[in-house]
Amino acid sequence: MAFPNRWSRFRYTIREPAAEFLGTMIFVIFGTGSNCQVFLSMNPNVEAVPRGDFLSLNFSWAAGVALGVWIAGGISGGHINPAVTFTLAVFRGFPWKKVPFYISAQLLGGFCGAGVVYANYFHAINIVEGGPGIRTISGSGDLLATYAASFLTPVSCFFSEFLGSAILIIAVLCVTDKQNGPPPQGLVPLSLFIVVLGIGASLGMNTSYSLNPARDLGPRFFTAIAGYGTAVFTYRNQYWLWCIVLGPVTGMLCGAFVYDTLIFKGSESIINKPNTWTTDRHPCACPGGKDKFHTGVENA
Questions:
Q1: Closest CA relative to residue 84, chosen from 18, 20, 134, 1
Q2: Residue 49 in 3-state DSSP?
Q3: What is the pLDDT of residue 185?
Q4: Sequence-separated (6 or more) residues with CB below 8 Å from residue 39
Q5: Inter-axis angle of helices 54-76 and 188-203, to 10 degrees?
Q6: Neighbours of 156 (CB within 10 A)
Q7: Radius of gyration of the chain (CA)
Q8: Burial level of 2, CB count in 10 A (0-12/13-18/19+)?
Q9: In this predicted structure, what is the pLDDT of residue 181?
């Protein structure tokens, strides 16, 4: 019996966005949780010895991505990133009607993940900030959402997110390309663990390598509600929009374009759609060709 009760029927209708929600939430819990543990423990009033360093941050974010993709992968594809969802809709034929539901679920997952981490660490945050009624971006807000290093220009901020995102989507497309030596089934999360760890260890300093609008916007909305105020949105002239949203989206679109132009051969990419000349000369080889296939070709 496919639907033994009403809940199972309802669950079937929501399981894809629900998987995106849960995968993104776990990803954000691992990542922002490591931020809080490492930086809050540097305060001697919280811990006598710091509990981690920059390398442990990178491992935690990479583990969060891997686990998030593992949780959601078999159900929704494990996007856990609005920029990935949008790019796959453009270059891989992912249904556009699902895009709003996926992105909404991812943003909600990021919001809830930040809320869980805040609930776990708010006592230490109170100590670091100087009291329960004090909340500042430099004190603890930057442990949940991302903020750029002060020495960076706006162009450098954007480029850092653009570059990391382009590399990430190239890796995603590579490990899911059946014609390019993909990893064995079930090992895609491990592959992405390695990719994110490498990006963080080599390119993570400038903007904390968000590479994911949901990873930043979900926690940013939470911090605005939790007492950090509207400053989280007005920071550096709406940094969240031009860097954290547009940086990953444009970076992934360009990365996917480069991969498909140079390597990918699948017909689902817009780069490989047949042109008019090919359609006219080889109608049988193109989807929706004018003539029917010869007898037996459809069974070849």
A1: 20
A2: coil
A3: 81
A4: 143
A5: 150
A6: 14
A7: 22
A8: exposed
A9: 87
Q: Which of 136, 160, 139 has the alpha carbon at shortest distance from 148?
A: 160
| Burial category of 185 from C-beta neighbours within 10 Å (exposed 0-12, middle 13-18, buried 19 and up) | exposed
What type of residue is 226? Answer: A
CB 31 within 8 A of CB 117: no
pLDDT computed for residue 288 by the predictor: 45
CB 269 within 8 A of CB 260: yes
* pLDDT at residue 280, rounded to an integer: 64
Single-letter amino acid, residue 250: T
Q: Pull the structure tokens for residue 166.
A: 């382009």
Tokens of 115: 């809320």
Cα separation, 178 vs 174, whole angstroms: 8
Express each pLDDT in 280-290 by its tens digit.
666 665 554 44
- Hey, what amino acid is at 132? P
**Is residue 45 classed exposed, middle or buried when 0-12, 13-18 and 19+ CB atoms within 10 A define those classes?**
exposed
Q: Token match 């639907």: residue?
A: 3
| Cβ atoms < 10 Å from Cβ of 258 | 15
Structure tokens at 108: 């909600």
Distance, in Å, from the CA atom of 282 to the CA atom of 274, rounded to the nearest integer, reads 10
Inter-residue contact 109 to 222 (CB < 8 Å): no
Question: Rounded to whole angstroms, how far apart are CA atoms 14 and 17?
Answer: 6
Query: At residue 179, what are phi and psi to the nearest 5 degrees?
Result: -100, 15
The model's pTM:
0.91
Taking only the tens place, the pLDDT of each residue in 74-118 is 999 999 999 999 999 999 999 999 999 999 999 999 999 999 999
User: In whole angstroms, what is the distance from residue 178 CA to residue 33 CA?
Assistant: 35
pLDDT, mean of residues 58-74:
97
* Contact yes or no for 124/99 (Cβ under 8 A): no
